[in-house]
Sequence to fold (185 residues):
Amino acid sequence: MQLGRLIVLTGPSGVGKGTLLRSLLQRHPELYFSVSATTRAPRGGEIYGRHYYFTSREQFQEMIKNGELLEWAEFAGNCYGTPRKAVEAQIAQGQSVILEIELEGARQIKQTFPAALRIFILPPSEAELERRIRSRGTDSEEAIARRLRRAKEEIAAANEFDIQIVNDDLEKTLDRLEAAVFSIS
Fold:
């Protein structure tokens, strides 16, 4: 049996990664979406085990210590990480696994899974990115400013990735993402 493929999707907060991923998974339910663990509080409508595994900081530290995370990073004051066992099991079964993770985690994946396809989603402009973050209505002014500062740093790292896709039109971007995910390399 052929091993599966690991696909990493990253980009700045507010760029539309989650929307693109949900649409891609609707089109292709055969893709395995790896649910991340996080120490942040759930947002409205988020469900444990479907959107994230919500954990305490202490539980998260234990996962790191025990080698249970494939990658992890701290972002905007919260920790995020990918549980290792489920990803490795799916890849061993020939399944394509997709991760939606932050830049630091994506950099770790480059070390732990060099063959992973790493895709960076870019905003059409900084102004549009700010509009998207503000339209969420979930962050304080301080958090928005922090996300925008971080976004500039992340965008500067886009060339580290195999593929860069600008999210300027949802359907066209989804088509480009789909083509990248199912390319043979």
Observations:
- The chain has a mean pLDDT of 91.
- Residues 141-156 form the longest helix (16 residues).
- Residues 58 and 66 are 12 Å apart (CA to CA).
- Strands lie at 6-10, 32-33, 36-38, 52-54, 69-75, 78-83, 97-100, 117-122, 163-166.
